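**Backbone geometry record:**
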Amino acid sequence: MKKIAYIEIDTHAEIAQDFMDLMQNSKSFSVDYYFSEKIKNQIREDSQTVHVSDSSMILDQLSEKNYDLVIIGTVHRYFNTFFAVSQKYNISIIVHNLNFSKISKFDLIKNIFKNDQIYRLKLLLKEGLFHARRTYEKASNLLILDRDLASGKLRFFPLFYTKDFEKKENENFTIVIPGGVSQKRRNYQKVFTIIQNLKTEEKFTFVFLGKAKDRELIDVENLSENLPENIKIIYFSERVSSEIFDEWMRKADVLWCPIQEEAEFFSNIEIYGKTKMTGNLGDAIKYGKPAVFPENYSSKLGFIIPEEENVINQFLKLKNFQYDFQKDFSREKIRKDAELLLNQLIST
């Protein structure tokens, strides 16, 4: 049985959880997980394969076992540590922002002073910010979770599979908008306007499934106070737990994903569907839901549907939408595909 170390001491707990779920009871691979305390607290499973780690410990921990492959879930900080890991081990890195993975030293210096200056100076002075690009380049392979973004050294990493659960009929047609309620990542102002001007006798529930704060929280509070009885909205002012997220995603009739065309990471422009994957893609697969995306979002997947001008009528037409998620995204199929890739990464 081949041995893998999976490291997540930074950000993406949900992807670490997806990998754990997929590899559970694998007959081909034994996986040890190295998580920061923050990540470990967000993981559902607590087993002997999960180890608390941080940037000061990880090199020593890895040296205690002979790993065939080391997967790093996020390289958005601790660049000096991860560069040192890349020099000793066969590593693959999951890439979340393609432009950032290729950013030059000049642009890094320039961007330090655009935002979050104290934090970014800490990355420069204590965490080896200038090693960022070198770390990605040193990796044996770079992994991407969206097949449409894979090319060359950037390998598609099959990770998302469709959960098997019984879908119950909702009294209200339920539209879930998953993700943090922030105008930076999604066009919530457009969503608020559409709901506010909605004239229908149909019963709708709109669920803003992410923490709302600042201007967006005020807007959604105001919106909730001025709606007819047949239209209901649900929102959260605190971080949404994985249990609540799971509950509402299962209930959803349709996902509404009004993502912005552009996002920023380290003051660097990233384009959804071109240099950056949206987590809503994984949401649609995991819960087997049709998802309405902006018209300009490019996808070859049959359940990712371009938004029409009358999006409310479009939602209603999707009530009986059929797509065989289990054919393309069953757990066994995705695990088989993932294990095939992992074997290839080990032999690289």
Summary: The chain has a mean pLDDT of 95. The chain has two domains: 2-160+331-347, 173-328. The two ends are 17 Å apart (CA to CA). The first helix runs from residue 13 to 23.
